[in-house]
Amino acid sequence: MRANNCAKNSIIDVNGYQYEENEIKNNFLIAATTAITRKDISAPLKYLLKKGITQSFDKSLLHFGKGKASLDCDYLRSISASYAEIDIGTPNSAAILGQHYKVVIASYVLNVLQPENRRIVWQQLAAATCVFNGVAYICVRSFKDRGIVGKPFLDGVITAKKRKVTDITGRKIEGYSFQKAYNPNELLSEANAYFSHVKYICKTGAFHIVECSHTNHTPNPITNSNNLNLDL
Question: Model's pTM, two decimal places?
Answer without folding.
Answer: 0.84
